[in-house]
Amino acid sequence: GKPAATGAGYAVSEHSDADTPAVGVHTRAPPVDASRQQHVAQVAPEPADSVPVVHARDVPPPPGSGPGAIQFEESAVMCEEAIGKVKLALVRTGGADGTLTVKYATRDGTAVAGVDYVACSGLVTFAPGEIRKEIAIEIVDDDQPEPDTTFVVELSAESSIVLASRNRSCSITILDDDSWQERMLRLQTQLRNALAHTLYSSTTWSDRLRDAIELSGGVDEETGEEIPPTTFDAVMHALSLFWKVQFALVPPETWLMGWPAFVVSLGFVGLWTAVVGEIASLFGCIVGLGDFVTALTLVALGTSLPDTFASKIAAENEPTADSSITNVTGSNSVNVFLGLGIPWIIGSLYHRFFSGRPDRTYHVPSGSLGFSVAIFCAVALVAIATLMLRRISAGGELGGRKWTTRALSTYFFSLWVIYVLIVSLADRGVIEAPF
After folding, report:
1. Percent of the chain as helix, strand, coil, to the nearest 5
2. How far apart are CA 396 and CA 185, in angstroms?
3. Which one, 245, 340, 417, 422, has the greatest CB density within 10 A?
4. Cβ–Cβ < 8 Å for 171, 192
5. Which residues pair with 135 in a beta bridge?
């Protein structure tokens, strides 16, 4: 054939003989017309006095060029956990004469066979003229969030000549789509909260009062469009107007990073907690219940129900039960520490400095408090053990089938009833508290 020209960074060869290889030649020739260029391959720049080498890429080996060698097309592959099967390509380079056979086998990395993927091994045979084959490896899909894991597929042969010098192994990274779904759920929650903040937040007290008084059907969380109010919305608006106007007096949450709103809201909560306590005490006096039993039932329900609703919302919107359970335990701890600690501190200070009897010690009769705490700890341990068993048997503390959730709800409610019943009987003297 005719020699072709070499340009800057590439070489061109034109062949009239079909049996002459089109690639893999060394050539140095004067320039030729660009219209006659037929085969172009990239080469690295070389000194002017050297002979450029043409490298063929993605070109099938011509017949009669030798048996060639086998390698993986890619040295690393990434796939999602839910892909089912990942396919790896093996290519034959440097020739396609004769038959070549290689072995492949998987090897654990951070991914474990039987847990993250299905271990496999076998033979791959390239017939004369074949230059590409594929093998498939099954990926195990589960519902547990976990870090990305990797494993390796290695090639081997009786003769090392059969294998290419590179890409003798391929690393497969399994991307955990469960964590990705979890991140998407959190992102969706954050976007929903941001949308609600944009739609409902206000910068002035007049805006808050107007929003509290006006009847509205709400806003569609997905489209942001206003929903016309229904009859039920009108009835609920009339019943809650007093509370809406009252809490519209809370400063806008955009002021001073929300601290004024937090302090004033906490003050309103404390005020109405005291009102609920007084009303419950009067009701207990009318029906013949002592203050201890009234506090365990009416007051505790009145202060804990908002926490229950908050935990319900957290359980519905969060992928784990951490937020809902932490809210319940944390809020009740605050109720105990602040509800008991602050009144006792105020009483002690008043008794010390303003009672006129600073020499006397301030005493608070415990009554059956020790027995009540002991029963509470026993019931709480039973509840915690139940949650731990749920984690082992069902994989989570909350959720599941409807009949399971209803049975557990009834079970936990019965624990509260048992606690209230035992402590109330001890307080009324029906049973004797040992301490």
Report:
1. 45, 15, 35
2. 18
3. 422
4. no
5. 88
